[in-house]
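*** Residues and shapes ***
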Amino acid sequence: MDYETILLETEEKMEKAVEHLGQEMRGIRSGRATPGLIDSIKVEAYGTSTPLKQVAQISIPEPRQILVKPYDPSIVKDVAKAIQASDVGINPSVDGKLLRLALPALSEERRKQLVGQVKEKAEVAKVTVRNVRRDANKQAETSQKAGSLTEDQAHDLKDEIQKLTKACEDKVDETLQRKVDELMEV
C-alpha cells in the first residue's frame, strides 16, 4: 500500500470510531429531552422491525418531554410497546394518536452512574482509535519491507498516524466532557 492510501484509511477508521461514540452518547439520557434517546428504537409494525424515526415524528415540546406522533395512527400501540421494551426506562402515555414521554429528573446517584458509563464508552473509543493506529503502523512497516515506501516515508507516515491518533483522542475527550457536563447539570 502507498503512503496516501494508508493515511486515508486510517483517518476514516478513526473518524468512524469517534462518530460511533457520538451516536452512543446521544442515546444516554441526561434529564433533558432529546430525540436521540428514542429515534433508533426498533418498532415491530407491518411485519417488520423499523427504526422509530422512520415511522413517527419525534418532537420536544418541553425540556423534559418527548412527543411521538406516528405517521400511521394505527401503530400507536406498537410504538408504545417498543418504547416500553427498550432500555430507555421511560413509560409512554398514549394520548389519542400520539405518545407523550415525560422524563423524570435524574438523582445524583443516577447521574454518577451515567457518568461512569459515559467514561467507559469513551475509553472503548480511545482503545479502538489506538488499535487502528497499531494496524496502520504495521501496514507502514509491511509496505516499507515490500519496497513501496522508503524508510523516511514510513517514518513520516507513522508521525502522521500519531497526529491523527492524538486529534481523535482529543475529539473523544471533548465529546466525553460535553456529555459529563450535560449529565451533571441540574
Summary: The mean pLDDT is 90.
